[in-house]
């Protein structure tokens, strides 16, 4: 993509026609253009022959035959992705938990060992489909080592790969998750010439990874009485 930087003729917002506003005047003859920030993280969980599990949170109506004041409750429906196509996720459309588990490793209570992804913030693309298809999926899960690409072409390369492997069955086997977070940026004068720091994050949380809360293994605090440290007056 070509990049061009040159001074503009504007020094005041009143000089710009409404249809030609694509940014903010941050200094004389300087316009900061509206733009997006997208960052994609490669998450290699390395837990063996793992499975990608989507657990949807669903509302269920209480049968009339049940004597209870509650008319509804919520439950979960678990589904293991069998193809890469089933592991594409547009987050935020419905409440669900996203996990990668190892079906061959279980806790003493029978729960599968794995990790749960708590997604980071994301602003959906505002451009036309020829561009937004590159970032339409906030979360992709692929087979291990299947993306020998550079970050510059990440979006297009991923889309090409997913279409090609959409029917490939890969229910069990090493996998890599690709999580994209981002936001829209409408510049302000405070952003020039040095933009303030804006932080965003996501969490990869161990789920049924330990037999109990690790805090319970910490040593208890030993309470002792302190010596009298009152000052002396000579």
Automatic annotation (TrEMBL):
Contains 1 topaquinone per subunit. Topaquinone (TPQ) is generated by copper-dependent autoxidation of a specific tyrosyl residue. GO terms for biological process: amine metabolic process; response to jasmonic acid. Keywords: Copper, Metal-binding, Oxidoreductase, TPQ. The keyword Plastid does not apply. Its cofactor is Cu cation. GO terms for molecular function: metal ion binding; oxidoreductase activity. Belongs to the copper/topaquinone oxidase family. This is Amine oxidase. It comes from Eruca vesicaria subsp. sativa (Garden rocket). The lineage of its organism: Eukaryota, Viridiplantae, Streptophyta, Embryophyta, Tracheophyta.
């Amino acid at each position: 993509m070509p990049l061009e930087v040159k001074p503009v003729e504007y020094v005041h917002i009143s000089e710009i026609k409404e249809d030609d506003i694509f940014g903010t005047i941050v200094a004389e003859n300087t316009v900061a253009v509206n733009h997006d920030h997208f960052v994609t993280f490669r998450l290699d969980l390395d837990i063996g022959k793992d499975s990608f599990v989507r657990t949807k949170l669903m509302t269920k109506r209480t049968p009339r035959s049940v004597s209870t004041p509650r008319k509804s409750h919520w439950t979960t429906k678990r589904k293991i992705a069998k193809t890469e196509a089933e592991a594409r996720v547009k987050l935020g459309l419905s409440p669900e938990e996203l996990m990668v588990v190892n079906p061959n490793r279980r806790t003493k209570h029978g729960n599968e060992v794995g990790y749960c992804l708590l997604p980071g913030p994301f602003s959906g693309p505002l451009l036309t489909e020829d561009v937004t298809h590159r970032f339409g999926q906030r979360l992709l899960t692929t087979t291990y080592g299947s993306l020998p690409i550079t970050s510059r072409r990440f979006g297009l390369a991923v889309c090409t790969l997913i279409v090609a492997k959409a029917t490939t069955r890969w229910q069990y086997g090493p996998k890599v998750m690709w999580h994209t977070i981002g936001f829209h940026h409408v510049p302000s004068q405070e952003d020039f010439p040095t933009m303030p720091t804006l932080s965003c994050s996501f969490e990869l949380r161990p789920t049924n990874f330990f037999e109990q809360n690790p805090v319970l293994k910490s040593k208890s605090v030993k309470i002792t009485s302190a010596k009298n440290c009152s000052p002396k007056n000579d």
